[in-house]
Write a structure and sequence with these properties.
By secondary structure, the chain is an all-alpha fold. The chain folds into 2 domains: 9-196, no CATH class; 214-332. The protein is 76% helix and 0% strand. It contains 14 helices and no strands. The relative contact order is 0.08.
């Protein structure tokens, strides 16, 4: 079964190359305060080097740095998902840098600036204050950061949803699983670990929930459901006989898996939202298409002929209605 959100091999290879190249300056950025601190320049008090080590620990553990790096990684990987993604990335480059700069300032830059201000004078009180304030300020920065992330996400709602979701493939999913996901949940507005068997599934779900508009999410699930259903129909059409008994077990397993994937996508569609764009679209989808999939799956898994026939009848009603309103549906969505 082909996943409609999988990246092609060229895009995935380029994404990994970019990710590896991206990791070098990112690691340099994180470790730079330590490098400066342990140079032991004349006049620097000995405690300052240990403070910067403490600062880096707080930066990595408490601040939104890891999530910010995930965002940057997905942004650079987005550019290699398709030719249209390259064009969109070029158009968005200027304001994207501004948005990411603003997020960095809110979550990391401002807390760091306050800490540096406290350190301007070397007194015992300021030393104690700097050690106490560093994690607290980063915690506040973390909370503010995720408070404004929805506003930042709004600025990319015009990007093609499929390419945005594909940016979560490969290196982004690996980084999410190893570096970001163990961070959930903790302080501040808590991120949620989305449902999904793999890190890619969970990250895609997070990206869809956070970076796509409600309509884009629904359109994506709506389209994906049809894609999976089409894959199931294509496998079934390759068989000489149409009955379940004559379909090889391996192919039947693929057909059932594709139908289940179609159902999972369909169940995430906001049918009430569809109705606001075209009368009865969501109602027919909910009352004909989804029950039809449920009965077809039951018919194949349980060898329930009555359920299979009922499901095919419901799907045929959906197809008839869809074909009759096809132009209106394409215009509305």
């Amino acid at each position: 079964m082909t996943d409609p959100l999988d990246s092609n091999i060229v895009s995935l290879t380029l994404a990994w190359i970019i990710a590896i190249l991206f990791s070098v300056p990112a690691l340099t950025f994180v470790l730079h305060p330590l490098e400066v601190a342990f140079e032991r320049e004349p006049g620097n008090p000995r405690w300052l080097a240990w403070f910067w080590a403490y600062y880096v620990i707080c930066l990595v553990v408490v601040s939104p740095l890891r999530y910010l790096m995930l965002q940057l990684l997905m942004a650079v990987c987005y550019m290699v998902q398709s030719f249209s993604a390259v064009l969109h990335a070029l158009l968005a480059a200027t304001y994207f840098c501004f948005v990411m700069g603003a997020l960095y300032f809110i979550g990391i830059g401002l807390p760091s600036a306050v800490v540096l201000q406290v350190l301007k004078k070397d007194t015992t009180a300021r030393r104690v204050a700097s050690f106490v304030l560093t994690p607290l300020l980063f915690a506040v920065g973390y909370a503010l950061y995720f408070a404004v992330v929805p506003l930042a996400a709004w600025t990319i709602h015009w990007l093609p949803a499929r390419d945005v979701l594909r940016s979560a493939n490969g290196p982004a999913a690996a980084f999410y699983q190893v570096v970001v996901e163990p961070d959930i949940p903790r302080i501040g507005p808590r991120l949620q670990i989305q449902a999904g068997r793999t890190a890619t599934d969970r990250l895609r779900a997070h990206v869809a929930q956070t970076y796509l508009s409600a309509l884009e999410r629904t359109k994506q699930h709506f389209t994906d459901s049809f894609r999976y259903k089409g894959q199931a129909d294509e496998i079934a059409s390759n068989e000489e006989q149409g009955s379940i008994d004559t379909i090889p077990a391996a192919d039947l397993k693929k057909i059932i898996a594709a139908h289940k994937a179609s159902l999972r996508a369909a169940q995430q569609v906001d049918c009430d939202l569809l109705n606001t764009y075209l009368a009865d679209l969501g109602t027919m989808f909910r009352d004909r298409y989804i029950p039809g999939l449920v009965d077809v799956i039951k018919g194949m898994e349980d060898a329930d002929t009555a359920a299979a026939m009922r499901g095919e009848a419901a799907l045929e009603q959906w197809r008839a209605w869809y074909n009759e309103h096809r132009e209106a549906i394409l215009g509305a969505l």
